[in-house]
Design goal:
Helix content is 32%, strand content 33%. By secondary structure, the protein is α/β, with parallel strands linked by helices. The longest helix has 18 residues. The radius of gyration is 17 Å and the shape is globular. The N and C termini lie far apart (45 Å). The C terminus is likely disordered.
Length: 233
């Protein structure tokens, strides 16, 4: 069974997590802290801490995962650089994990909710956003990841009586969200940030499905750069 390490620095939070699965069960060790502008200083010690607590050496790892975005440009570069350095040095595959999907899984794990819309503050009056259906620990994208002004947000229809659980810093821009979207939100959490704990679980899913990308193949996803390129086509 694989041993996977995940790290994230995509937001004001910094985190690391290690997942071990064997015949005896599953062990998940993680660290998480809100550390604005201290990611470079805090990330490597967090990695050392989860390895030490799990009793695992870097040489025993089977893969590295990281929050590939969307998120803070600087934070994504820090996470990608650290993860690529580790993966290159150890000769391991590098799995990029969506920060928005990690938020959706966090909401599902904590509250058992099925319909989740994730949004992160993208600055400049915009949000990174996606929508998901979550069942039995699995996630399915219902609205593809995008960057947009919050007033442009539209969500897929749900069955009568169902509502969306909204999670992520983008919901701090609540007043700019269209009234019809607000009406479809049952609960919202604008405080939660993406975490490596969910990322390592998503990476384990991808690893089990055969994903083994080389370190040089994995790149951060900024979304805003992609949108600018598409408009210029």
């Amino acid at each position: 069974m694989p041993i996977l390490l995940a790290l994230d620095a995509s937001s004001s939070a910094c985190s690391a997590a290690l997942l071990q699965r064997d015949d005896a069960g599953e062990r998940l060790v993680s660290r998480f802290a809100l550390t604005p502008r201290e990611h470079t200083r805090r990330l490597l010690p967090m990695i050392d801490e989860v390895l030490a607590e799990a009793g695992v050496t870097a040489a025993e790892l089977d893969g590295i995962a990281y929050g590939r975005g969307p998120g803070s440009f600087t934070g994504l570069r820090i996470a990608a650089g650290t993860a690529q350095g580790l993966a290159y040095g150890l000769g391991l595959p590098l799995l990029g994990v969506s920060t928005l999907e990690a938020l959706a899984l966090a909401a599902h794990r904590r509250h058992g909710v099925a319909n989740v819309v994730t949004a992160m503050d993208a600055r400049m009056g915009e949000i990174y956003v996606a929508a998901w259906r979550c069942r039995d620990g699995a996630t399915e994208a219902l609205l593809a990841e995008a960057v947009m002004p919050p007033e442009h947000l539209r969500l897929p229809p749900l069955d009568e009586g169902d509502g969306w659980y909204a999670i992520g810093s983008g919901w701090s821009l609540w007043e700019a969200i269209p009234a019809e979207v607000q009406a479809s939100i049952g609960q919202r959490d604008a405080e939660s940030e993406p975490a490596a704990e969910e990322m390592v679980l998503l990476a384990a899913r991808d690893y089990a499905q055969g994903a083994r990308p080389a370190a040089h193949e994995s790149q951060p996803i900024y979304l805003r750069d992609q949108v600018a390129w598409q408009k210029g086509k």
